[in-house]
Design a protein that fits this description.
The protein has about 170 residues and is an alpha+beta fold. It has one domain. The chain is built from 3 helices and 7 strands.
């Protein structure tokens, strides 16, 4: 499902940045765009349709989708990256996802910015239908603890001999 990403740029009070950016919404079924489209402006803010990205869902991630839909406010997560070109805006939409676990992975990398917005009803209905068709509950399997045996790991072997730069053993 294509989702348009709406970014808002606000004038910043911070002395080191000119603007603060945030994702304000997504547009289900938005058309592809080549350049950013200004959607509205006011005193100190401007909203842009910054890009249209595909929302891809996978059978193996239905557990995360299901969890997202059980939250009080289901969300769409938008991953933003810093622009590489000087003539672009500060941030560029990179990925949209409805899996909170995938969003957390991007947050953990600390190279991207992850923002979330309320999931539109059309996306929630589409996602619920997909989960109903493809989700399979997997039983919890508790792993058994295995005792550590250093002899099986090779710790009982002596370390290799150190060679000097003339390719002779160091202790000769």
């Amino acid at each position: 499902m294509p989702l348009g990403v709406v970014l808002e740029r606000r004038t910043s009070d911070n002395q080191w940045t000119d603007y603060d950016w945030s994702v304000v919404s997504v547009l289900p079924g938005a058309a592809e765009i080549d350049d950013w489209v200004e959607l509205g402006k006011g005193d100190g803010w401007v909203r842009f349709h910054a890009g249209t990205l595909p929302l891809e869902i996978f059978r193996t991630e239905t557990e995360g989708y299901k969890y997202n839909l059980t939250l009080e406010q289901p969300s769409v997560y938008i991953v933003l990256r810093e622009a590489e070109d000087e003539d672009e805006a500060d941030l560029v939409p990179f990925l949209v996802t409805v899996c909170p676990y995938e969003a957390q992975d991007y947050l953990d990398s600390s190279e991207e910015i992850v923002d979330s917005v309320a999931m539109p009803d059309t996306v929630a209905a589409w996602l619920a239908d997909y989960i109903e068709k493809h989700h399979v509950d997997e039983p919890f399997k508790k792993r058994k603890r295995v005792r550590f045996d250093p002899r099986k790991e090779g710790y009982d072997k002596p370390p290799p001999r150190i060679q000097n730069k003339w390719n002779k053993p160091a202790n000769e």
